[in-house]
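User: two proteins, same treatment. go.

Assistant:
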Amino acid sequence: MRALIRTMSWLLVFGLAGCATGTPQNLLQPDRADTHLGWQPAPENQLAYSVATASGIARLVLDRLPDNLNRVSLELPGMQRVEGVQWRGDDGDKAMLFSGGSGEPGVRLEERRRGFILHIEGAALDRIRVGGLLTVVDFYRG
């Protein structure tokens, strides 16, 4: 009976973690004082976070992402019109993943009632997998 309970506990931990390798909460950290980040449960081999910022610019530092990861989703509540998603990798690579109304293959911005959800997968996820700085810019609020 104890073995069954211990096995069920491990399955619950790995199922809620979304990604069985690494601690999801530590793979992504805010880089600006006004950026607040929350981890959310996700299906296996996926990561999901909620990002809020007062300035309209969310800068996030990614650690190296696990090889078995197939999607990162960022919920962006409060953003009104995402103008761009920029990437600067630890390997020196940099790219504009999303600009205006379109993005690189594997980058999709989904409009919600209040804000957006940014999905990064496929070739775009492979690009950011090395770790680095991800910047999401909402419209100019000056």
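Protein 2:
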Amino acid sequence: MKTYHDLRKEIKCDNASLNQVKLYLVLTQLLKILFTETFVTLCSMIPFFLFYWLVFGISIKTMWVAGIYLFSHFLFYEFYLKNSYKKDLKADYEEITLMLVVLKDLRNEKRQKTTK
């Protein structure tokens, strides 16, 4: 994983305006949301419920099948998705969080330069 100083050297915002740095900050915050475990879990639920909806339709009579799909997704989450997230995406999420800190520092520096 990269450190604060590594990321600071990589991000070249010397010629960027304050508005561009703010845009980078907003897009990085959006990227951070996309890399959360909750978002990944919710996106992995889509195929489970899409299959349920296409095969059975949504009615009171088939709600027990939805419960089975929900339980099967819970098992999928517990036995596969949680470990896979920690192995593949957790380091990226932490690096994005650190990148937000770097961008906030750069934004504050740009603000100080423009007020002088």
